[in-house]
Amino acid sequence: MSRFFTERLSSLEAYVPGEQPKDMKYIKLNTNESPFPPSPSVIEAAKEEAGRLQLYSDPECTPLVEKFAELYGIQKDRVIFSNGSDEVLNFAFMAFFDENRPAAFPDISYGFYPVFARLNRIAYEEIPLREDFSVNYKDYVGIGKNVVIANPNAPTGLSLTLTEVEEIVKSNPDNIVIIDEAYVDFGGVSAIPLTYKYGNLIVTGTFSKSRSLAGARLGFGVACPELIRDLNTIKYSTNPYNVNRMTMMAGYRALCDNGYYMDNCKTVMENREYTKHALRALGFTVTDSMANFLFAAHPRLDGEEYYSELRKRGILVRHFSKERIKQYNRITVGTREEMDALLRATEEIIKEKSK
Fold first, then answer.
1. Backbone φ and ψ of 180, nearest 5°
2. How many whole angstroms separate alpha carbon 243 and alpha carbon 81?
3. What is the pLDDT of residue 56?
4. Rounded to two decimals, what is the model's pTM?
5. Domains of the chain: residue spans and CATH
6. How far is the CA of 222 from the CAs of 67, 161, 190, 196, in angstroms?
């Protein structure tokens, strides 16, 4: 770092994004992207807006907000859009967390939570997952801290029930509870309806996974109008034009074509179950993921070695170095052809290691 970098951030450990290789063509099963392209009307909408890039985008995201509210059956003043869900999560840390309201989240979860806490100088507690990698909701009941939980969780894919989420929210009335639903469209149950019942709940989501717009960067938050106004105060104090014109209209058209994307989610879920059973038949331990990825380990394969051997064969998965999960790899669910390629490579690796 340079000598000008502020001392208060000198020890910050930045989030490490998934690998985006440039050296060869891989089967990319490492960053939980959709294997399906955007719908044709989304591509056309983005092209049309490209001809208007000399103009600022609408800071209120009017057409997007209106369509989202219609599709989800909520009021327009209950949603905020952002540059990926990461941005609205950071807005929430900035708006609602301080020295008197520290954070609590699982010790194995989305890697940005501790980064946002440290970036905003917020004390935080990382609560261990159970032995089976599930979140014990009772650990958060009445905790008296602001809570952040990915549901389904990443990288495990395991999910809390809506009843368990509600217990956490209602038992912490003086604290914010954020439920990060990046993967909810792959079999989870959304807590958005609970935002009408509880004024301390924020539900965040993204168009990156289920709506094939990872490269467009579009996320959202849903909460009561008072919390949305607070989040907008942060937005308008940092970057009011945070959603560009092309992304905004691509997101609008994606909501109009919702059936196309939900059908794709069903296909991903079918491929997930197919691959899960196949990996288990090969001796893997695989969590019962409710997301668009699998979390798997093999008793005779070192986790990092499995990742490396797959990479040599042109297949990328995500390996984590954290001690408790270093034998596991997170495998994005792709097309059936991509999953069959993964399974063939895996069988080959197992045979080689058994010699």
1. -90, 105
2. 7
3. 97
4. 0.95
5. 16-36+259-354 (3.90.1150.10), 40-256 (3.40.640.10)
6. 14, 19, 11, 10
